[in-house]
Structure of 23S rRNA (Uracil(1939)-C(5))-methyltransferase RlmD:
Amino acid sequence: MKVKTPVYKNDHITSKVVDLTYQGNGVIKVEHYPIFVPNTLPGEEVEIVVTKVTRNFAWGKMVKLISKSPDRVEMKDQRYLQTGIAPLGNLKYPAQLKFKRHQIQELLEKAHLDDIQVAPTMGMEHPYEYRNKAQVPVKLIKGQLQTGFYKRGSHDLVPIENFLIQDPVIDQTIKIVRDQLRQYHIQPYDEQTGRGCIRTVMVRRGYYSHEVMVVLISNTKKIPHVEEITKEISAKVPGIKSIVQNINSKRTNKLLGDVNHTLWGQDTINDQLLGINFTISPLSFYQVNPQQTERLYETAIQNAGLDGTQTVIDAYCGIGTISLAVAKHAKKVYGVEIVPAAIEDAKMNAKNNGIANAEFVVGKAEEQMAKWQEEGLKPDVLIVDPPRKGLGEELIEATGKMKPEKVIYVSCNPATLVRDIQRFMDQGYHVTKPIQPVDQFPQTTHVESVTVLERA
Ligand code: SAH
C-alpha cells in the first residue's frame, strides 16, 4: 500500500525552521509532518528541496537561506558539519549551551517533571582545540594516502588537516605521521579487500604533561620501513614519549586489536586530573576533554558534600578517575567497573598516587551493588557515571535498599537520565538541586550533566 505523505521527493518548499533536533538538524513542518534539513537553524526562513520521504518524516536539503538566524556562525568549511566533527559548528557557542540545557528541560517536561530545574550549561572559554585524543582513519584516495574523518553515517573519508576541536599539536602530529607513511609508500588498509597495512592513526597528548603517544593501528604484523618511520616521528613530534603498534587483523569496524607492541620509547604516557597522576596505555579509556572533566568532577564532588567521614561508592568507575579524586575527601571509596583492564589501571593509579582508601572490583555495577548490599555495606554517597544506556534497574533497587543519603548521577544521555530519575523517585529519592549540564563536547550534540538526588 502506498502511504500518502504531505510532501514528495524533489518538491521545493519555502518555510520557517521551527526546531533543532538533538542531532543538530533543523526541522520544518508541513501539516505536522517533519522535514529534517541539515545546516538550518530555528527561526530561519529557508527554501529546501525534499531529498527523501518516509511514512513519518522526510529529509531535505537547503537550496536558499532567505533569512538568517542571529545565532548562525558562518562556516566557510562545510566539511566540519558534514563529518561528525562539529555537527553544531554552525551555531554560536552561547546558543549551543542553551540548546543543551533545553534538551534536558524538554525531556523533563515530557515526563511531567517540570518542577525539576536545569542550571545554565557550564561552557568552555575557548570551545575549540580541546580534545586530547584523536583516532583518524587512513585511506587511499586517488592513489594518495590520506588522513581525515568519515562523512556522517558513511565510510567515505574526507581528508582533513585541521580538525578544529583537537589539540593543535595532535593535528600537527597526524600530519607528520601521514607524511612519513606517504614517503615510505605504506599501503593503507582497504576495507573491501581486507588488504593493506595501516588502518588508523591514534594520537594522545597529556593536557598538563604535554606527553604525546602515537599508536599505529595496522592490519599486518609487519609495517615496512618501520625503523625509519619511527625514527622520523620520534625526531619530529614535540613531546613524543611513546610510539606503539597495535595489531588489528580482523575485518571489523572495531578500531583497536588486542596486541600492542611498543616501537619506540615508553609503553604509556602520563597526565593529571585534579592533581592526580594517571598512567594512560593505548587501550585505556581516558576522558577526552580534560579541562571540562575537571569541572564536571568538581561539581560532582562538591555536590556530594564530603567531609572525610563518608563511605562512597563509584559505580561505572572506569580507570578510577572519580574514585581517586573523591578519596581525598572521603573515609573510603569503593569502585566497580566491568572492564578488567580498567580496574588494573585504577589499582595502579591508586598505588602510584599513594591513595590507600580506595578499593576496586571488576563486575557489573548492578550485580556488585546487590552483592555489597547483601554484605551489609552502607554507603553515604553513591556516584554513578554510566554509559549512554543509563542504569540497570537492579542497581536502582539495590540503592533503595542500601539507602545512601545522596546519589550523584553523572550522565551522558539526558533521555536515560530522566528515565532513571523517575525510577529513583519510586525508591524515595528526589532531585534537590538544579541539574547542572557541563559541556564536555563543544561543537557536538553531546549533553553531559550532574544531578543530585537525596532521600526524602
Ligand atoms: N567514571 C569513569 C568512566 C565513565 S564511562 C571516568 O570518568 O573515566 C562508563 C564506564 O562504565 C566505562 O568504563 C564502561 O566500561 C563501564 N561500564 C559499562 N557497563 C557497565 C556495567 N554494567 N557495570 C559496570 N561498569 C560498566
Q: What stands out?
A: The chain has three domains: 12-72, 133-273, 289-455. The domain at 12-72 is CATH 2.40.50.140 (OB fold (Dihydrolipoamide Acetyltransferase, E2P)). The longest helix spans residues 93-110. The CA atoms of residues 275 and 325 lie 8 Å apart.
